[in-house]
Amino acid sequence: MGQFKNEMTRDFKNMKDDINHLVNCHWTTTYDNYKIHVSNKMKCEQLFIDDQLLVEKKHTSFLYMFKPSETLKGVLPNGEKIVVKLHGIKSVICTIKINGEIIYSNKIAPQINGWTTREPLIPYIVQVIESEGVMTGYDLPDDDYYQIGTEKLPAIPYQLQIIEESVFQKHESKSLYKKLMKLLEEQSNKNRNAVYELVIAEEYFTYMDAFDERLNEGQFNHADMKEVALWFIHHSAHRYALIFGIQLLSKVPNDTEVELLQKIAMNENFTPFAMNILRTKSRQNDIIFAIAQRLEHWGKVYAVEALQIETDEQKNWLTGQSYNDLAPDVFLNKAAFLQVLTQETISIDQYTTIGRLIIDKIEEGELLLIDQVGEFLILYTKHAKHHAFTLQLLKPLVAIYPFITQETDSIVYDDDGEIEVYEEDDYSLLPVEKTMIKSNIQDVLNNMQWQQHIVEAFDTKTELYEAIMLAKIMNINTVKYMLAAMYDGVYEDEIYMTLIMDKNVAVIQEVLEFIDTSFDLNNLTKEQEQCLFTVIVSFEERQEIGSKLVRKVLYSSNDMGQYAALTVLDEWPATSWKTPEIVERLHEISKKPIDEDRETQDCAKRLLKKLNKMPNKESLK
Fold this sequence. Notes:
Among the domains are: 21-110, Lipocalin, CATH 2.40.128.180; 116-308, no CATH class; 513-620. 55% of the residues lie in helices and 9% in strands. It is built from 30 helices and eight strands. A four-stranded antiparallel sheet has the order 1-2-3-4, with no helix packed on it. A four-stranded antiparallel sheet has the order 5-6-7-8, with no helix packed on it. Helix 26 (526-537) runs parallel beside helix 28. The model is unreliable at 408-413, 417-426 and 617-621 (pLDDT under 50).
């Protein structure tokens, strides 16, 4: 309901802006050496004499503009009476009388054209690119048009990842195609506006692919289509209309707009669409490579995807420092990393880049989806012997190690993070591959200096995650170092997780006492909040240890802590925590404003339903 209200507020604001532009009319004339200027705006009408305000009528509501007429009366400096009448529905007519005689009458027929109400995007983009070389971030002049409440729309590349096709895409694409064909026949503002109004809405993305198919199958004059495409590119004041123009341009032979497309591509909102054209043109690979080198985020991903590897410079860049973790598969497929690993030696940049990719694939649960993953990891860990001399450079091996020592190597995940059905032979490492990978990692770990690196990490409070994980692999007890770091105010959630899972009850109690005395539950930093969350969720199967802290957090005002506490209660037997005080607290949380914390609210409601299904309901009252 809150989202719907915010969308309605945004649409109402945009409508008022359009109406304001629509009714913003001005008339100027002269009489007896006096300059007379009349201004008609949404919230006021004004009469100026020689640029000095003579009469003004203000309105508190924009609805007043629907009044069919308005009159302004005043007296000229020479004593003559002046009356201005503004009236009309489809057209606004301005009639000026001096001493009862009409000296001026003229009408303006206002027309809303979406591209004239806001700043065009292309001049803005070109100016920024020419002055700065690249556009950092995704902000555009039309942000406020699409902003819902205080939240901007996701950047266009992110929208492309999550877009869901409309169930009405055939009808919507057909309607747009029909209006486009009419525009090609007659390029009038009326026909342009009919198309423009359709393609400025974010819903355009939901049927853009279906519309593209219609364009591929359609027949049209290429010259006319190019003219319309360029008109939309140069006049669009809304992001989706500009994308529409680029889409049209991709359907016609074109070798004259390469420079413009380069500048458009340097704004990462539009890189994927510009690449759709540049990648099909001969001799443009060097341009694509130059663009890829200058971009950093999703723009780089789409540029790399369009790049054809033709030179050693391109290959070295791609396998070296180019990697972007937004889309690991794009770089994995394009860079032929397995071929790189078969070389006798690789550079430190190549080792680091491939290591980042391995870590990203592990975090996504997709390591075993790498083609020939066994050989891939064997070769990488072999090269590690020549490069892994710091904790940071050792990090990929620390991440790989659990896959060869635990029964987790045949798990893969679908797009929703759920475990997929798999064939054992397809998603697992062979025993001999595990042995070889483990042997390569052990060769690296046999250096006795690693223990000193771990101690130095705790002393300097840097690379603590890598130090803790390495210590676990090497069976080095670092409890005293972790406790010291905790007391020093180091909020690394891996420290808290390791300590709270320690077998020594005294260590666990020390952590709980530190949280009890040092954490202000109603005023936590983000780092403290994450550590607290880590500790609480560890109590799901250890009720006897965490009961006191869970209850305390439940009564705090910290949403993330409350949610963790509620999820833990959901795992514990209800009979162990069902008290009138906690039931009352659940009711309080369940009645939070829906926009404040929906997940926490829903969790509280779920627990109350669970209690209501239990016998002796009277005890809940």
